[in-house]
Specification:
The complex is a heterodimer of chains A (455) and B (123). With 455 residues, chain A is an all-alpha fold. Among the domains of chain A are: 1-92, no CATH class; 99-315, no CATH class. Chain A has helices spanning 8-29, 37-55, 60-76, 99-116, 119-128, 135-152, 155-171, 179-194, 203-214, 221-246, 266-283, 285-288, 292-295, 297-305, 311-315, 319-337, 340-347, 355-372, 375-386, 394-404, 416-423, 429-454. In chain A, helix 5 packs across helix 7 (155-171). Chain A is globular, with a radius of gyration of 23 Å. By secondary structure, chain B is of the alpha+beta class. Chain B has one domain (2-122). In chain B, 37% of the residues lie in helices and 15% in strands. In chain B, strand 1 and strand 2 (36-41) form a beta hairpin. Chain B starts with a helix and ends in a 9-residue tail after the last helix. Classes of the chains: A mainly alpha (455), B alpha+beta (123). Chains A and B meet through helix 4, helix 7, helix 16 and helix 21 of A and helix 2 and helix 3 of B. The structure holds zinc ion (ZN). The site of zinc ion (ZN) has 8 residues of chain B, from loops.
């Protein structure tokens, strides 16, 4: 019998995995001055994780559990270099159900209900029906809607929805009309930007909050939004302005068929009410004292309890993303416990450097990485390091990196929203680079200056 | 038999009453529920079968992909790109493949014997 597991694809996977493990082993056996045994092993694990997250031989969440296995076997076993005993190793497992992971889970449940009952489409169509037909204003309406939705539901789902809405409009333009590109690029860009707005908007936000939590530095839901929303507003406005400049409209009216929307049914109204209540509770947690992660369980209990969502919805919740977040936090613990974070930070000559300069370096590093690898992997690899830099408050560094990880507008592979827009065939790679690199550069500057001034 | 070894099989839907293979799809939509397809015999009008849709792919594949992406979660741009590139090609290729199976080795069993129904948790 032939072994079906050994397909050509899987052999390639195994080679990359073996190479990643070998590289980790080599790195961990280097005799690096000032680094303890635990630190060296963690550097090896970090190397393996980085290679796997960059090369993606398998989905990113698989790497998360490879990290845990390596951490426990190499570091946390009885008599290992971290001197852990009994069940202490569970410190590497617990991030997978950390409070930010639960918060994200609640967000997923709400997004699922909103999607299943068509509320997302209803919201987008009712906003767009009101923005009129001037091309530039219509683009702004489209981008604001996208940014708003992607604060609450995934950037990918938002983009898929909005591109669906946009395609008939785009196709109504003459073929050479440059404004078609503005419309198609505006959607993924504002979806990336919108993710910045709330803790549940995109995984890097959760990773930043989670790693800060581990250092007993809490950022509440409303604290995040107070910093995130202004950035979203400014970036959306700048991005809109730039797209209008680069791809000016050659027509003065947009042709849109507006369909009369049927009134909302009872189920949809109920889901919207639960959504609003949950968000209100998230924003007011300092008054009632219920942690936002526990509030996040309400939609889970209500929607699944009342059978508005079912087992298939549960399976489709995006567990992989939760595991990616958990993996990053688990790696972060090892990096701190082993002294690796401090050691890396000491290597870089930050002393005497201006804080603003340091933040710029972080943001540029994050934006560069996220152009080529996933924004979650970027956050997972960078945030544990930057929070250790003594010259800057950990909250500032973590938030700057998390936000800059969303500034991924350059290539189709930079984020799923870009890939979706590219798939329409209406923009090519060069067009995306042309529009995206300017917007990315401006985004970095705005993020750094804004967060610097606010903290 | 080379398909069966790989646990692949395919057949054309038949009307139980008159044996016709000509069918008509009556598609039913209810918000919040999976779409249901009631298959009707195009010759005698008898009810043939009901399909419950988990996914839908038309020949307008990019639009279908968008529809699927609205409820799935991708975290990696590279994987999304792969999905985008493969999607259109995949469906057409699979369609040809299924027709090959039916032409060479159509499964003669009843549908109920081929489909192993797994009951969902909430039933
Ligand atoms: Zn018949």
């Amino acid at each position: 019998m032939e072994l079906i597991i050994l397909t050509r694809e899987n052999i390639k996977t195994l080679i990359i995995l073996a190479a990643a493990l070998a590289a980790g082993f080599v790195v961990s056996s280097l005799n690096l001055p000032g680094l303890s045994e635990a630190g060296r092993i963690t550097l090896g694990i970090f190397t393996t994780a980085a290679i796997l997250w960059v090369m993606e031989p398998f989905p990113l969440y698989v790497t998360s559990f490879i990290i845990v296995i390596l951490e426990v076997v190499l570091l946390a076993r009885e008599g290992g270099p971290l001197q852990m005993t009994g069940k202490e190793y569970t410190v590497f497992l617990s991030p997978f159900f950390d409070s930010v992971v639960v918060l994200f889970l609640g967000g997923f449940v709400m997004a699922k209900a909103v999607n299943r009952y068509g509320l997302d489409e209803r919201i987008s169509r009712s906003i767009l029906a009101r923005v009129g037909t001037r091309p530039s204003i219509f683009l702004l309406g489209m981008m604001v809607t996208t940014a708003f939705l992607s604060m609450w539901i995934s950037n990918t789902a938002t983009t898929a929805l909005m591109v669906t809405v946009a395609i008939p409009i785009v196709k109504s333009f003459p073929g050479e009309e440059p404004f078609r590109k503005a419309l198609i690029l505006g959607i993924p860009f504002s979806a990336n930007i919108g993710g910045i707005g709330t803790p549940i908007g995109t995984p890097p936000n959760a990773i930043a909050m989670g790693i800060l939590n581990q250092m007993e530095l809490e950022i509440s839901f409303i604290d995040w939004m107070l910093r995130g929303i202004p950035v979203v507003i400014i970036l959306t406005a700048v991005c809109w302005f730039m797209l209008c400049r680069i791809f000016p409209a050659g027509v003065d009216r947009i042709r849109m068929e507006s369909e009369e929307q049927e009134p909302m049914d009872r189920k949809s109204k109920f889901i919207l009410s639960v959504f609003l209540v949950v968000v209100a509770l998230w924003l007011t947690s300092s008054y009632h004292g219920i942690p936002s992660s526990i509030v996040a369980l309400i939609p889970f209990v209500v929607f699944f309890g009342l059978k508005l969502l079912d087992g298939d919805d549960l399976n489709a919740l995006g567990w992989g993303i939760l595991f990616i977040i958990g993996g990053g936090m688990s790696l972060g613990i090892a990096m701190r416990e082993s002294g690796l974070s401090m050691w890396i930070v000491d290597l870089i000559p930050f002393a005497g450097m201006d804080i603003l300069m340091i933040l710029f370096i972080f943001a540029v590093a994050a934006a560069l990485m996220t152009t080529f690898i996933s924004n979650s992997a970027t956050a997972n690899l960078l945030i544990p390091i930057v929070v250790g830099v003594p010259a800057v408050a950990p909250e500032t560094s973590a938030v700057v990196v998390a936000l800059a990880a969303s500034a991924a507008m350059i290539l189709p592979i930079s984020t799923p929203p870009n890939a979706i827009a590219y798939g329409s065939g209406l923009v090519n790679v060069r067009t995306m680079i042309r529009g995206g690199s300017i917007i990315t550069a401006i985004s970095i500057i705005i993020i750094v200056i804004f967060i610097y001034l606010l903290f | 038999m080379r398909y069966r070894e790989k646990k692949e099989t395919a057949r054309i839907e038949h009307c139980e009453k008159c044996g016709s293979t000509a069918t008509k799809n009556n598609i039913y939509f209810l918000k919040g529920e999976y779409v249901k397809v009631y298959v009707e015999c195009a010759d005698c009008g008898a009810f043939v079968a009901r399909y419950t849709l988990r996914g839908y792919t038309s020949n307008r594949t990019y639009e279908s992909l968008l529809r699927n992406l609205r409820s799935s979660r991708f975290n990696s741009g590279k994987r999304t790109m792969k999905a985008v590139e493969l999607f259109g090609k995949d469906v057409e290729e699979q369609f040809q493949h299924v027709r090959d199976i039916i032409r060479e080795d159509e499964d003669q069993r009843r549908m109920e014997e081929i489909i192993e129904e797994d009951f969902r948790e909430e039933l």
